[in-house]
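Build the 3D complex.
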Amino acid sequence: EDQVTQSPEALRLQEGESSSLNCSYTVSGLRGLFWYRQDPGKGPEFLFTLYSAGEEKEKERLKATLTKKESFLHITAPKPEDSATYLCAVGVLGNEKLTFGTGTRLTIIP
Amino acid sequence: DAGVIQSPRHEVTEMGQEVTLRCKPISGHDYLFWYRQTMMRGLELLIYFNNNVPIDDSGMPEDRFSAKMPNASFSTLKIQPSEPRDSAVYFCASSTPAGTQYFGPGTRLLVL
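Done.
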């Protein structure tokens, strides 16, 4: 069974304090690993897709990396507007389904 | 593009009533997904369609739930009869083949 585990459940950082969020996964055949951001009262917003171990992608203060067992979302010098829940999901080869983790709730304190 | 459109945004109903949630996917997307999100269970896939045909409904919790996609631009998720444990946020998402899923704003359902 495909499984996705995110840690920590919640993270509070001071503005400018860099850190990383973890997404561990087990899957029969990885089609892609997806990162989404979700603000309260809104739908998940797509951030990145990673397809193979060693791949990295960046967007503003965020950088996502991928190994064969986990993905990290690194946030550098975060700002209060980066506060949100970050979700990761895995897609399996041969179908279109995504399995989501339960998310990390990130709070950036001014 | 307007993105995925869902209606209503909020629904409050009484136990036993029928609830119908609606979704308009992004034009040109072949796949449509219905998810449910709760604090306890997170984001769960209920059912997904390819070219209007249901492909996998293994996540539909029970027979009280049904989904249809009569054409490429419209889908419904129906709960009949509704129960308090159905209270959740329901999301619709759409994608191209092997593409990124884009989510709608969700429908917040409260069953009293």
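Chain B touches chain A through 23 residues (CB under 8 Å).
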